[in-house]
Design goal:
Layout lengths: L2 H16 L4 H8 L14 H19 L1 E3 L5 E3 L1 E6 L2 E6 H4 L3 H28 L3 H25 L3
Antiparallel strand pairs: 1-2, 3-4
Helix pairs in contact: 5-6
């Protein structure tokens, strides 16, 4: 059986057992070498510790804010993937480079599309008229935002 089916089965079983999933529950299940999840984790504390510190560094980078012209705050550094490598660049500098600006806009358009798809999935799975109505209202707002974004940037 392909690995993703084993992972789905294990996570489904954990969810049934506990009524929900948390990273702690998943990690606890994965500790056993016989678990189908075990090989998906880094068990070398030296490497895993480094990975956690990288996560902390990303969080730290995103915590620095600057004031936009309209007075709202935004991240000073923007994540961008260039030539297969993801890094952060200062927003004020990034917007001066047309190619990089386009990459960030395309990534933003993709994130909006993903959000729209997630809401659509919730609507299709919804079982109550009230919940579906709330989700549809949100979906309409996100769709409108995406359309305005595409119109303003030319990025689809």
């Amino acid at each position: 059986m392909p690995r993703h089916f084993l992972v789905e089965e294990e996570l489904t079983d954990l969810n049934k057992e506990h009524g929900h999933l948390t990273p702690d529950l998943v990690l606890e299940s994965a500790v056993s070498a016989s678990s189908p999840l075990h090989s998906l984790f880094e068990w070398d504390n030296t490497k895993a510790g480094h990975s956690f510190r990288l996560w902390q560094a990303r969080k730290l980078i995103r915590s620095v804010k600057i004031e936009r012209p309209d007075g709202d705050l935004m991240p000073k550094f923007i994540s961008i993937r260039v030539e297969g490598e993801r890094h952060y660049e200062e927003a004020k500098v990034l917007v001066q480079d047309f190619d990089k600006w386009t990459i960030v806009l395309e990534e933003t358009a993709s994130a909006l599309s993903d959000l729209e798809h997630r809401i659509e999935s919730l609507i299709q799975l919804g079982d109550s008229e009230n919940r579906v109505e709330v989700a549809q209202t949100l979906q309409t707002g996100v769709r409108s935002l995406r359309e305005k974004f595409e119109e303003a940037t030319g990025v689809a």
